[in-house]
Specification:
The chain is of the alpha/beta class. It has 5 helices and 4 strands. A 4-stranded parallel β-sheet has the order 1-2-3-4, sandwiched between helices.
Amino acid sequence: MKFIQYFVLMCLLSATLNLQPSLAQNKNYLLINLTSYTTPESRKAIDYAKAEVTRGRPVVIFLQDKSVLAASKTYASQFKEQQQNLNELMRKGAMVLICPHCMKLYGVTESDLLAGIQIAEESDQS
C-alpha cells in the first residue's frame, strides 16, 4: 500500500512539474486531485473548478484511483454527467491528467480516454 501511495505522489509531482509552460509560470493555478468521482466532495471540487476556470484561473485536474473510470468512453452511460463536466472544463482551458498506474489497475486504455485527457508521465523511480 505504501508503494501505491508513493507512486501516486510521484505521478502527481511529475504531472505538476511537467505542466504546460503557461501554467508553470502562473503560480496561482488550481490543482484538483480526484480519487473518486461520485461523492458530494468530488462534485463540489468540479463545481469550484468550473467557477475558477470561468474566471480565467488555470485549472489542472488529476484523476487517480477510481476517478479514472469517469475518463473512459466504456463507462459513458455510468459517468455521463462527469464526462460532460470534464469535456466542458477542457473546452474552457482546464488541463485533465490521468494516472497511468490507475489506468492499468482499472483496465482503462489510452484509446478509451475522452479526447483531450493527458496521461501523466510516470516517474523513473520505482
